[in-house]
Design goal:
two-stranded antiparallel ribbon; alpha/beta; Rossmann fold; 290 residues; binds S-adenosylmethionine
């Protein structure tokens, strides 16, 4: 089977090499500041084809770049922004697309009113609403490092939207609990286990995988495979009770990661300086000193 790359993690099917490579190529060109940038069009196209998505919903429009790319790929787009200035700025970019609906307001509240009308759509959620620099705090109540992810997931569950795909950004910021030890992550962020529980409450058949800095949840019947590195990183990050042998095996797999996977791990290790999440730094040290 053809070897393909998914978010720098090699996959065997469904996601193309181009999607992954193009998606993160710019990080190597411009460095860490671009880590939480907008989604790449190859990535979006691949998601659309793989899951047959009819509606793309983005929380946190920011400057509208991801939505403008999505507008060329998905039949319907909804994008939600809390900050009036950013909403207006994005409007300039998005007004040319007839299939984009912009919403001004708190994402969880907008989702609560919007989702009952979209029950028959196949939705890809791009959950990316959070504090992102001083610009996003003015005129809003967004505090530094705050995320609204748990309220958003509750809104999806309450609307009864089960058959969907959920992509959550900034996995590096989420905390972890492992063998009773709590690693805090960024201020105001829940743990990955709390997110895992909420995703399973939306759909108990969800498969959940950590793709570098994103969390992807999709229904188990989709025939998609991921690289051994993606599985190893997911195991170590998500398992609450994990014995030393499992960690050792996972780290052995990470040692054999591809060149691009290793580059991404290095970026993530640098990006988690402010948190007490040890994983990326540990992975970085094992790939650096192998
Ligand atoms: C990282 S940026 C989004 C980037 C964008 N999704 C992309 O792919 O290019 C986060 C955005 O979320 C917005 N935001 C923060 N809290 C929000 C909330 N409760 N509801 C809606 N938007 C929110 C911020 O103002 C900021 O524009």
């Amino acid at each position: 089977m053809k070897r393909l790359l998914l978010f720098l993690f090699i996959t065997h099917f469904s996601f193309s090499y181009h999607f992954n490579f193009e998606c993160y190529k710019r990080f190597f060109q411009y460095g860490f500041d671009e880590l939480s940038g907008c989604l790449d069009r190859y990535f979006l196209r691949k998601l659309q084809h793989t899951f047959n998505i009819t509606t793309f919903i983005e929380t946190g429009t920011y400057d509208g770049k991801t939505s403008s790319k999505a507008a060329k790929i998905f039949p319907h787009i909804h994008t939600i922004e809390l900050h009036k200035g950013l909403f207006n700025k994005a409007q300039k970019m998005l007004q040319e697309y007839g299939n984009v609906q912009q919403h001004l307001g708190n994402s969880s509240e907008v989702l609560t009113t919007l989702l009952p009308q979209l029950k028959h759509e196949t939705i890809l959620f791009w959950l990316d609403a959070h504090y992102s620099g001083a610009e996003t705090t003015s005129h809003t109540n967004i505090k530094e490092s705050e995320t609204i992810i748990q309220e958003e997931l509750r809104a999806i569950k309450d609307a009864g939207i089960k058959h969907c795909v959920i992509l959550i950004d900034d996995a590096r910021n989420f905390g972890s609990v492992q063998n009773g030890i709590r690693y805090k992550g960024s201020v105001g962020y829940p743990t990955l286990h709390e997110i895992h529980t909420q995703l399973k409450e939306i759909n108990s058949c969800f498969r959940i995988i950590l793709l570098g800095d994103m969390i992807l949840a999709y229904e188990a019947h989709h025939d998609i495979s991921f690289s051994p590195t993606a599985h190893a990183c997911t195991t170590v990050r998500f398992l609450e009770r994990i014995n030393k042998n499992i960690i050792k095996q996972a780290e052995q797999v990470i040692t054999n990661a591809s060149h691009r996977e290793k580059s991404l791990i290095k970026l993530l290790a640098n990006a988690t300086k402010e948190t007490d999440i040890p994983f990326y730094k540990r992975w970085n040290s094992i790939i650096t000193h192998e």
